[in-house]
Amino acid sequence: MQNAYLNYVAKRLVQAVLVVLLTYVFTFIVVSILPGDPVTNILRDPQNGFSDAQIAEIFAAHGLDKPILVQLWTSLSGFVVGDLGISLRSTRPVADLIAEVLPSTLRLAGASLAVALVLAMVIAYGARFLPKRFGGGILRGLPSLFLSVPTFVIGLLLIHLFGFQLGLFKVIDSNSFWATFFAALALGIPISAQIAEVLMANLDHEAAQDYAAVARARGLRQSKLFFRHLLKPSSLPVVTVIALMVGEVLGNTLITETVFGRTGVGSLIQRSVVTQDLPVLQAVVSLAAVVFVVINLLADLIYPLLDPRVKLVGSTPRRVTTADESSIDTAPRKVSV
Amino acid sequence: MTISSTATAPRITLPAPPFVLLSLLVVAIIIAWSIAPNLFTSFDSAVGVPADKLQAPSAAHWFGTDHLGRDLLARVIHGTASSVSSAMIAVLIALFLGGLTGLLAGFLGGWVDTVLARLVDVLLAIPNFLLAVIVVTALGFSTTNAAIATGISAVAVFARVMRSEVIKTRSATFVEASFLSGGSRWHILTQHVLPNASRSVLPLAVLRFGQSVLTIAGLAFLGYGDPPPASDWGLLISIGKDYLRWPWLLYAPALVTVITVLSLNRISRWLRKTD
Lengths: 337, 275
Description:
- The complex is a heterodimer.
- By secondary structure, chain A is an all-alpha fold.
- Chain A has helices at residues 2-32, 38-44, 52-62, 68-80, 94-129, 136-146, 151-165, 177-207, 210-217, 222-235, 238-259, 265-275, 278-306, 323-327; strands at 310-313, 316-319, 334-335.
- Chain A has 14 helices and three strands.
- In chain A, a hairpin with a 2-residue loop joins strand 1 and strand 2 (316-319).
- By secondary structure, chain B is mostly helical.
- Chain B has a single domain (62-274), classed as MetI-like fold (Orthogonal Bundle), CATH 1.10.3720.
- Chain B starts with a helix and ends with a helix.
- Chains A and B meet through helix 1, helix 7, helix 11, helix 12 and helix 13 of A and helix 4, helix 5, helix 9, helix 10 and helix 11 of B.
């Protein structure tokens, strides 16, 4: 029994490492097809006044004169041991640049996930409890509205209403509590919609199960049924959804940080895109992929432990709910934890 | 009982719920705007009247005027073509590349499936918007490239859905029967697998159409699309943010974007339900 779980862990680990390495290679390929080689453009800029010999020397120092496959190999083997290369623009190690801005972005991302989770629970549980005429129906429609508004519009709306009209915060003072809160809200609203949709669908599914019908038939109050029976099974899958949302949060910090004028990984990307600072872009994208893969790996590893109904089939956890399905359990390919 | 209730006054049945009809109307207007913008506005979208700058919405200028005295409604209408057709390009790219990937993976199976699955994993591991950003950086800043980038960032989703649909259909009894009664692989692919898979891919395409409008607007907002005087919706909103004292410059293009995407989401949901 323990063995099956360890087997599953090992399989997922290998898969995760493979995906991270492949992602690095993929990013390298995309970034190196850039038109009009940015490095040469910087060096040939008459303002910098390099001679041809100096340019060749700089090329050799960065290893840019070698064939592309050799460059990929050096870059990839550096990445594996944690060396992210050197920024083309500031000639500082990329790792330093990222380390400088990372705390601010982690704070924002963490806050936005928390906001999203609370908002999603309010929407999903509210939609279940409130009668239609008291706003239950409106709550149900809210996620689809949230998903139709661009992140930057939500941000600008919040800035206009709370910053500009009510004077609650100043965009310039980007580290104040309210500025961070509203930035997190802008980032969290689209995320909350996706979590809320999953929560609502799960709640509906559980409420339609036989055990819920039996409980209702025996006179259990609606609130007791909800808290004692429906809450836990319908909330657990949210763990996986949140892990998937991490990627979206990381991608959208780019927009939110620009809108709210915050310094962070997002604004670092924006700067590197404009100046075509390839090593920084390569590093940030790869690190985002690492974060995404690791968090999803953790979610996948923890989930079978949280939900005893999950059986491990092959390399993916699968929920087994019906009696018929669990009776096939003795088949050789399926293993139970 | 049941007979008497069905016999009472014949009710007019709508072909779709009213909300969906409204959404279809919105999409029809948007398409009309992008095909023939000049039918809907007589103002020029690039040249303004400086004396009329920053006017609030009125009967003459429904959305008001911008900082150069250009009619904002005209700018929105003229921006529709590139905002919407680029989203269309994005969806078509994603549909084609993703559909093909999923089809090959699901239909051929074996090592092809394994290799393609890893490729899809890689595309999923990079945050969607970040993927679009690095692709558009690699191709160069323009609205067309933003559309291609958005399309590539959505390939993985289509590949996944297509693959699972193909596998589901391929193992169905009627497909097995068709194979046993002498149907070729090509016949099975075109007559059974594709029509069945398209039923769940179509709502996804409509949904992604809305999402692509948002992603492209985001790229335009950051300045990765065509530069002004182009009037993509994202670019208009980005200009509007510098004029918060005249909020219609922000709210008018934002509202048009939101209503368009909301309508597309509604239609997608309806397509999924009626299936």
